[in-house]
Write a structure and sequence with these properties.
Elements: H1 4-11, H2 15-24, H3 30-38, H4 44-57, H5 61-82, E1 88-94, E2 106-110, H6 113-120, E3 127-133, E4 145-146, E5 159-160, E6 169-173, E7 179-184, H7 189-195, E8 219-222, E9 225-232, H8 236-249, E10 260-265, E11 271-276, E12 281-283, H9 295-305, H10 311-329
Antiparallel strand pairs: 1-2, 1-3, 3-6, 4-5, 6-7, 8-9, 8-12, 9-10, 10-11
Helix pairs in contact: 3-4, 4-5, 9-10
Length: 330
């Protein structure tokens, strides 16, 4: 049975966002919960189980149908990936360093997915199984295709690339051998287009006006990478104006457009930005950074974005941080 409160605890990982939603008495529709679940990055089977429970819970018939279409599509893609008439082989590559192997290294070639998984059992390292075709044993060569977002490239057809030896499919697994995600080039365009319409009508990539409790200059931590700390660059006023523009202009957006800009420091004392959904960020107090060499750099960056520190002071702190890093590496 679907438990909405349990769903919020599991899929809205940011306590900052959960507390904000509770204070403001905000909630998600069934379609929005399906969208967040689908894009959560959790293991594929966990996502499917949650979607199945949601399909049984919701009164939205269209959403029910779309969820079962998606699950059937996933099943079909995985069946195609595992099918081998003798003209394919599977390569195992590592997604992290291991005792005797390096990240990205190919560590074996197999006739079936089952053999590949048995080989990696109990090795406790994340890995991918990639499917390759053996030329000369197949009448039709499967090629990689580019599927263009019709919102950004209206009228542009699917683009088929010349054969270059690339894998025609892959499955990624965690260190325990649990399937995280997959891709395949073997599924037909008609089947693919039925469930992948870039967020314009279905739940998978549906745009959600996510609640944003963060203000420009706030220090935040990524919930799934606790040591990844940055500074929010966008103000809540800017966010609300953006949401107003979306409503008034009926902009055709997808799930990933509901992200805020966060600046992250590098070892060189510079910053790079990323676009992250608020539900994956938690606000932190600078005091938790006591003893962290990034503390002053992050605090001054936050103050500058709030208009409480000058650019020259920020540049001075960045240079001090760079020099300290050079000395530590010398």
């Amino acid at each position: 049975m679907f438990d909405k409160k349990a769903w919020i605890r599991e899929y809205i990982e940011s306590k900052t966002v959960r507390d904000h939603m509770e204070r403001a008495k905000l909630s998600f529709s069934d379609t929005e919960m399906a969208t967040i679940t689908f894009n959560s990055g959790k293991p594929l089977r966990t996502i499917q189980q949650t979607l199945e429970e949601l399909a049984a819970y919701t009164a939205d018939r269209a959403l029910k149908e779309q969820i079962w279409e998606r699950i059937a599509y996933d099943r079909r893609c995985l069946e195609l990936f595992e099918a081998n008439d003798g003209s394919f082989f599977y390569q195992v590559s590592l997604n992290a360093d291991a005792e005797h192997w390096e990240c990205g290294e190919a560590v074996g070639h197999f006739a079936t997915v089952k053999l590949a998984l048995e080989y990696m059992a109990d090795r406790k390292v994340p890995f991918s199984v990639e499917k390759y075709q053996i030329l000369g044993l197949r009448e039709q060569i499967i090629t990689v295709k580019g599927h263009w977002n019709p919102r950004l490239f209206p009228g542009k057809p699917v683009e088929e690339y010349p054969y270059d030896g690339s894998a025609i499919g892959s499955c990624s697994y965690d260190a325990d051998g649990i399937l995280l995600r997959y891709r395949t080039e073997e599924i037909g365009d008609e089947e693919r287009d039925k469930v992948n319409n870039w967020g314009t009508a279905r739940f998978e990539h549906h745009y959600i006006a996510l609640s944003n409790p963060f203000e420009r200059g706030d220090l935040v931590r990524c919930v799934n990478a606790s040591d990844t700390i940055g500074v929010v660059e966008i103000s809540r006023t800017d966010w609300l104006e953006w949401e107003k523009r979306v409503r008034e202009q009926n902009l055709k957006l997808d799930y990933y457009d509901a992200s805020i800009t966060v600046e992250f420091p590098t070892e060189r004392g510079t910053f790079f930005h990323d676009h992250i959904s608020p539900i994956y960020l938690e606000k932190i107090d600078p005091i938790v950074l006591d003893g962290d060499e990034r503390k002053e750099l992050l605090e001054v960056a936050g103050c500058m974005l709030k208009g409480q520190a000058s650019l020259s002071w920020f540049a001075h702190v960045c240079e001090n941080y760079r020099q300290k890093q050079r000395k530590e590496k010398a």
